[in-house]
Amino acid sequence: MNNSIITFETSTEVKNSSVHGKGLFVNGNISEDEIIMVIKGDVINGIECERREENENNVYIFWNGDDIFIDVSSTDKIKYINHDCNPNCYVDENDASSLFLVASRNIKAGEELTMDYGYEEIYDSCNCYTCRKEAG
Ligand SMILES: [Zn+2]
What we know:
This protein is of the alpha+beta class. The chain has a domain at 12-38 and 76-135: SET domain (Beta-clip-like), CATH 2.170.270.10. It contains 3 helices and 10 strands. The protein has a 4-stranded mixed beta sheet with strand order 1-2-10-7, with no helix packed on it. Strands 3-9-8 form a 3-stranded antiparallel beta sheet, with no helix packed on it. A 3-stranded antiparallel beta sheet has the order 4-6-5. Bound molecules: zinc ion.
C-alpha cells in the first residue's frame, strides 16, 4: 500500500438502471482485476456505523476491516452501485481510509457495474440481473 497518485483511464457515470433506481456504468472497456475507482467517504467506527444504519437508514456504508467503516452516502458515484449475486466488481483493501473497486471480470463499455452487497436481507427478494435471469 502506498500513497502514489493513481489515475484511472476509464470514467464512470451514473444513469438510470433497470435493476434499481440509478446505477453506476462504465464508459470504456475494463479488464479483469483492473482498479475502477477509489472508494472514499466519511471514515467512522462500528458504533457510529450502527447508529447511521439504524437512525438514518444509511445503506451506503462499506466495511474496511477491524472497526473501520466508510460511509459513502455523500459521494456522487459509488453510492449508486447496485447489488448483483454474480457481480462484475469486488471491493479490495487500499488503506485505512479508502478501498478499491476492482473488476472481477472483463467489463464492456456501457455495462452497469455491480457488486455483492453481502448482507442477508438482500437475498430475500433479490431483483438483480442474475436472479431475474434464473427466474426466467
Ligand atoms: Zn440476486
